[in-house]
């Protein structure tokens, strides 16, 4: 193209100087899918976002272990109870809770459009497995923020006719590694967990960065200082690490820790 023709094309808008050439930027990663096989034999298939800074593109070991634990203890932790998942990502534990007969399940993660839409997709795909009297909801939620929306999904009364004042079971899988968010997580627990002796927060995590484990574990004394009782319920070593090339103690990176947290008697 001659110089005069280039100038004319620019003036006519035919040449967009601000448009990147084809292939200049890497292609956006497409969503992938993962499966979780329930202990009952059913399979839950979920979509993972293609790429995300909050790790919604992973199906974490703690999420799988939380799902198994909920299924194993469904009569105690799930059946006819109101359940809230905090930091759900793909939402497998929420789906398992709904499948196993929870009265209400609210699946939440950070109010990012991609994460929330992906959770809603997974909830809709799981609908055929969920009993008609179990209600699964999806919402965006920032830890420590106002809980009006997520509390609005609760039924107005319990089976005994008493007013509903919170969730019976909280699911918190692989969230406490965000040690800087511990005060906000505690605040969310205080605002959403029903003040009854059998209300429980299930906290399960793997130290993917083992050198940060002491900071991660500071969540538990903070919870006790905030009116809760902490009970360690299991420590299990799984077969493989999730990230093979990561540094740090491999045994710790294969270990899943599980805790149940309840209100201290003085807090009831």
UniProtKB/TrEMBL annotation:
<comment type="similarity">
    <text>Belongs to the class I-like SAM-binding methyltransferase superfamily. EFM7 family.</text>
</comment>
<dbReference type="GO" id="GO:0071885">
    <property type="term" value="F:N-terminal protein N-methyltransferase activity"/>
</dbReference>
<dbReference type="GO" id="GO:0000183">
    <property type="term" value="P:rDNA heterochromatin formation"/>
</dbReference>
<keyword id="KW-0808">Transferase</keyword>
<keyword id="KW-0949">S-adenosyl-L-methionine</keyword>
<keyword id="KW-0963">Cytoplasm</keyword>
<protein>
    <recommendedName>
        <fullName>Protein N-terminal and lysine N-methyltransferase EFM7</fullName>
        <ecNumber>2.1.1.-</ecNumber>
    </recommendedName>
</protein>
<dbReference type="GO" id="GO:0005737">
    <property type="term" value="C:cytoplasm"/>
</dbReference>
<feature type="binding site">
    <location>
        <begin position="87"/>
        <end position="89"/>
    </location>
    <ligand>
        <name>S-adenosyl-L-methionine</name>
    </ligand>
</feature>
<dbReference type="InterPro" id="IPR029063">
    <property type="entry name" value="SAM-dependent_MTases_sf"/>
</dbReference>
<keyword id="KW-0489">Methyltransferase</keyword>
<feature type="binding site">
    <location>
        <position position="173"/>
    </location>
    <ligand>
        <name>S-adenosyl-L-methionine</name>
    </ligand>
</feature>
<dbReference type="InterPro" id="IPR019410">
    <property type="entry name" value="Methyltransf_16"/>
</dbReference>
<dbReference type="Pfam" id="PF10294">
    <property type="entry name" value="Methyltransf_16"/>
</dbReference>
<dbReference type="GO" id="GO:0016279">
    <property type="term" value="F:protein-lysine N-methyltransferase activity"/>
</dbReference>
<feature type="binding site">
    <location>
        <position position="109"/>
    </location>
    <ligand>
        <name>S-adenosyl-L-methionine</name>
    </ligand>
</feature>
<feature type="binding site">
    <location>
        <position position="60"/>
    </location>
    <ligand>
        <name>S-adenosyl-L-methionine</name>
    </ligand>
</feature>
<dbReference type="InterPro" id="IPR025784">
    <property type="entry name" value="EFM7"/>
</dbReference>
<dbReference type="GO" id="GO:0032259">
    <property type="term" value="P:methylation"/>
</dbReference>
<feature type="binding site">
    <location>
        <position position="143"/>
    </location>
    <ligand>
        <name>S-adenosyl-L-methionine</name>
    </ligand>
</feature>
<comment type="function">
    <text>S-adenosyl-L-methionine-dependent protein methyltransferase that trimethylates the N-terminal glycine 'Gly-2' of elongation factor 1-alpha, before also catalyzing the mono- and dimethylation of 'Lys-3'.</text>
</comment>
């Amino acid at each position: 193209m001659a110089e005069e023709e280039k100038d004319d094309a620019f003036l006519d808008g035919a040449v967009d100087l601000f448009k990147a050439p084809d292939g200049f930027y890497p292609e956006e990663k497409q969503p992938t899918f993962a499966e979780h096989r329930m202990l009952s034999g059913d399979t839950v298939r979920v979509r993972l976002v293609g790429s995300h800074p909050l790790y919604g593109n992973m199906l974490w070991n703690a999420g799988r272990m939380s799902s198994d634990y909920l299924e194993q203890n469904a009569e105690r932790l799930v059946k006819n109870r109101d359940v809230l998942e905090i930091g759900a990502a793909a939402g497998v534990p929420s789906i398992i809770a709904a499948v196993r007969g929870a009265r209400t399940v609210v699946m939440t993660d950070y109010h990012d459009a991609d994460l929330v839409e992906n959770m809603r997709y997974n909830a809709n795909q799981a609908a055929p497995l969920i009993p008609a009297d179990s209600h699964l909801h999806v919402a965006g939620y920032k830890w420590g923020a106002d809980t009006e929306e997520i509390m609005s999904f609760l039924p107005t009364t319990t089976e005994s006719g008493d007013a509903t004042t919170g969730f019976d079971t909280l699911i918190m899988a692989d969230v406490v590694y965000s040690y800087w968010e511990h005060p906000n997580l505690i605040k969310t627990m205080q605002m959403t967990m029903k003040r009854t002796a059998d209300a429980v927060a299930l906290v399960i995590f793997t130290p993917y960065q083992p050198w940060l484990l002491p900071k991660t574990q500071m969540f538990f004394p903070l919870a006790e200082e905030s009116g809760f009782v902490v009970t360690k319920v299991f420590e299990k070593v799984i077969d493989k690490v999730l990230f093979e090339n990561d540094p740090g103690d491999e045994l710790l990176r294969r270990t899943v820790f599980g805790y149940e947290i309840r209100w201290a008697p003085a807090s009831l």
